[in-house]
Design brief:
The complex is a heterodimer of chains A (about 700) and B (about 55). Helix content of chain A is about 55%, strand content about 15%. Chain A is built from 17 helices and 17 strands. In chain A, the strands form 4 sheets. In chain A, strands 3, 8, 11, 12, 13, 16 and 17 form a 7-stranded mixed sheet that branches. In chain A, a hairpin with a 6-residue loop joins strand 4 and strand 5. In chain A, helix 7 runs antiparallel to helix 13 and helix 14 packs antiparallel against helix 15. Chain A is flat. Helices cover about 65% and strands about 0% of the residues of chain B. Chain B contains 3 helices and no strands. The longest helix of chain B is centred in the C-terminal third of the chain and has 16 residues. The chains are: A alpha/beta (about 700), B mainly alpha (about 55). At the A-B interface, helix 6, helix 14 and helix 15 of A face helix 1, helix 2 and helix 3 of B.
């Protein structure tokens, strides 16, 4: 469906007549932009289209339809006077010359709070000339045409607000869309044709059975032929399925193989990273071992030393003291505290002399200074040992100790440093390895092996089915030869004619089945190709769009082919636009093929899209990616954006492709809102989408052309 | 250089003319404008066409 113009008249927030004009398709610029302040009536444009196409809206029935009229109209129109509410579009449906469609209702207040509504009715006229009157769609043929062009179930694919296909695409409940889609692309037409041809086949067989009822052998052969034919038909259909499955597996294998190759390059780098991490872990473990060992050695040295090492620092002082004693001729080599005390207790010296007062004083001074004050018995012993080398164990321990301890302390300090270094390196490398592709690569390789196994199994099934088919064909040849012999002489011509007719009908059913499959495959291939082109090249992170061969609906899969249920960042928007754009391209291509084949009828018509807030839930990168992707994806694209969806990045991407732009202007009181939320930048100018209300008016909306 | 036929085109091209006529007829019978025809009418029409081919 291609628009020339959409007009809203007193519809919801829009007061009076408000139009958006569309450029003819094929122009270089295909985007019509509508900028709107929040809550000004942007999404009303979608409601208006739904109302125009189908005549009803959720939340409105005959009793409440008067609510569709603008508040201001309802409050200012006198009692009993009609308010006309309508939505009109000058539109071309399915490539036909344009017509003007109008869905309108009249409502009037008959008493306070009570309204009477007539309609809505669908009207049309060929031209835009004011003297041509609108005709009512009395027989519903126009409605049928609209329903075929935009099936209601697919409305939210072509005209979506925020979440495309009302969220059905991503949440696995898209099955409800399968039949409308198949109907829209005329796949159902093939199913219906098979039904008709099969019924004719059955009817012809019944006629022949009637002819043959008195000829037992002939009738038996006919039955036998029928059985073999049916079985053959099952085998043919099974074979087609297996061949498709093989093709799909080949495709999946090739996708995953490509992904493996891509990931393996990254995996090589990851492998190096992984090795570095392992090296650092080894270093850490070694350092921890060395540290433990050094600590154990230090502990052992301290315990074995029995405290002697504590004396090591004082050894030089002892030596100095000994030297002083030696000089004073007071070598403590053979004296002890006990000896001095004994001397002092005795009245006579050992030499027999009486200890005089002076001698006692000297001895006490010696005891005090040399032994009691500055050393102790152990020290004396030690000094003696040092002097005479009598205790080599202590000496050697003391002599060795500082060196051993220093070595162990050195080892410990090195180990602590190595441990800290390796821990820091591990801390840095671990997240890098976790984010690397090794795990992804291994997963892909496992999936590739699974596919390869499935592939071999399918090839085996195919070979078996081909063998069965050859046997059945041989049987049919034999039966046909037997039939010719068994054909009754009387009525032979009629029987032969019916036999031939049955063969033709059988071939027709087979051809239709094959054609249906070819048709579905062609649709599949083309849509899948478009998804690859539009979706896969737009999104980042390796996610892909994959079309289901049977439902023809798309899903998003990760690099290992698993369905992504809740894709973020705007991928659903990209998927939806890629899919509907693919459908539009499909129409052109398949229609051309059907036309060449002499087939009448059309698929979905050329299609305009309305995208309300396509950047909702898209992050900054996707906003830009979607904006870059939108131009030229459809013959006409109406994009509705609020201020938050019109950042500079989007503006830069879209502006060169804008054919025209409209502002949804909110007529409201000055103090009701922040003035800056109405300011929009477009091109080089800044526009305000707010206008002052006149006294007594309630808020309403209008369109203004701004670009 | 001629564009190679896609499988759908090839399918139609490879059909013998009489088979193709029947297939096209059968598909055309399912179009929206033929919806007013009952299933029986469609079947009769197709059967008559098949029998005519045999004559």
């Amino acid at each position: 469906m291609i628009f020339e113009r959409i007009t809203l008249h007193n519809f919801q927030r829009y007061r009076g007549e408000n139009s958006i004009e569309f450029p003819a398709p094929g122009k270089a610029s295909s985007i019509i932009l509508v900028l709107a302040p929040n809550n000004s009536g942007k999404t009303t444009i979608l409601y208006a289209l739904r109302f125009l196409f189908y005549g009803h809206l959720a939340g409105y029935d005959r009793e409440t339809a008067w609510n569709l009229a603008t508040d201001l109209c309802r409050s200012t129109t006198p009692l009993g006077e009609d308010i006309e509410v309508w939505v009109e579009a000058r539109v071309s449906i399915g490539g036909e010359p344009p017509i003007t469609l109008r869905r309108s209702l009249q409502t009037r207040q008959i008493s306070a709070g009570r309204w009477k509504t007539e309609g809505p009715f669908l009207f049309h006229k060929k031209t835009d000339r004011p003297n041509e009157k609108f005709q009512v769609d009395a027989d519903g043929s126009l409605q049928t045409q609209i329903d075929a062009a935009v099936p209601q179930e697919l409305f939210s694919w072509f005209y979506f607000a925020g979440e495309p296909a009302e969220g059905k695409m991503s949440h696995g409940n898209s099955r409800a869309l399968v039949e409308p889609l198949k109907k829209a692309i005329q796949l159902r037409r093939w199913t219906d044709a098979i039904h008709t041809a099969s019924a004719v086949h059955t009817s012809l067989k019944a006629k022949l059975q009637k002819e043959a009822k008195n000829h037992g052998e002939y009738a038996n052969l006919l039955n036998k032929k029928d059985l073999v034919s049916r079985s053959k038909s099952d085998v043919v259909s099974g074979l087609a399925t297996v061949q498709r499955e093989i093709q799909d597996l080949q495709r999946s294998y090739s996708d995953i193989d490509g992904e493996c190759l891509r990931t393996s390059k990254k995996a090589e780098e990851s492998q190096k990273l992984f090795q570095r991490l392992k090296d650092q872990e080894l270093k850490r473990d070694r350092a921890a071992g060395t540290l433990d060992q050094a600590n154990a050695e230090i502990s052992s040295l301290i315990s074995k030393s029995a405290g002697m090492p504590l004396l090591a620092p004082v050894l030089p002082a002892i030596e100095k003291r000994l030297e002083a004693l030696r000089k004073a001729n007071l070598l403590p080599a053979d004296i002890s505290k006990g000896f001095i005390e004994r001397l002092l207790r005795a009245s006579n010296c050992v030499c027999g002399r009486v200890h005089d007062h002076g001698a006692k004083e000297h001895l006490e001074a010696y005891l005090k200074k040399t032994l009691a004050t500055h050393t102790n018995n152990d020290l004396v012993n030690l000094a003696n040992a040092l002097e005479g080398g009598q205790d080599s164990r202590v000496i050697s321990l003391i002599a060795r100790y500082p060196g051993d301890l220093s070595r162990q302390l050195g080892k410990k300090s090195d180990a602590i440093r190595a441990l800290a270094d390796s821990k820091a390196a591990i801390e840095e490398l671990t997240p890098q390895v976790k984010a690397s592709s090794i795990e992804e690569f291994n997963k892909l390789v496992r999936r590739r092996e699974e596919i390869s196994r499935e592939f071999r199994a399918k090839e085996k099934s195919r070979d078996e089915l081909e063998g069965r088919l050859r046997t059945q064909e041989d049987s049919l040849k034999t039966i046909n030869a037997d039939l010719a012999k068994a054909r009754p002489k009387r009525g032979a011509e009629e029987a032969s004619k019916l036999e031939n007719a049955i063969a033709i009908a059988e071939r027709l059913v087979a051809n239709l089945r094959k054609g249906q499959q070819q048709f579905q495959d062609a649709v599949y291939e083309l849509l899948q190709e478009r998804l690859r082109q539009h979706f896969d090249s737009t999104v980042t992170g390796g996610n892909r769009a994959k079309l289901d061969r049977d439902t023809l609906l798309p899903v998003i899969v990760d690099p290992a082919d698993n369905i992504v249920k809740n894709p973020g960042g705007g991928e659903m928007q990209v998927l939806s636009i890629a899919f509907v754009a693919g459908l539009a391209e499909l129409r052109t291509k398949i229609n051309a093929d059907l036309k060449k084949a002499g087939l009448a009828g059309r698929l979905l018509g050329e299609q305009s899209f309305v995208l309300d807030s396509p950047f909702t839930s898209a992050d900054h990168n996707y906003m830009r990616a979607i904006a870059d992707f939108l131009p030229n994806k459809a013959p006409q694209l109406l994009v509705l954006l609020a201020k938050q969806n019109w950042p500079d990045t989007v503006r830069e991407a879209l502006e060169p492709h804008i054919a025209s732009a409209y502002g949804v202007t909110l007529h409201t009181s000055a103090d009701a809102h922040d003035a800056s939320s109405f300011e929009f930048q477009i091109g080089k100018k800044s526009v305000s989408l707010r206008k002052e209300l006149r006294a007594g008016e309630t808020a309403y909306t209008t369109f203004e052309k701004i670009f | 250089m001629a564009t190679p036929l896609n499988p759908l085109q090839k399918f139609f091209t490879d059909l013998p003319p009489k088979d193709r006529d029947l297939l096209v007829l059968c598909l055309d019978l399912q179009l929206t404008m033929s919806k007013s025809r009952s299933d029986e009418e469609k079947q009769d029409l197709l059967e008559a066409r098949i029998l005519k081919q045999v004559d």
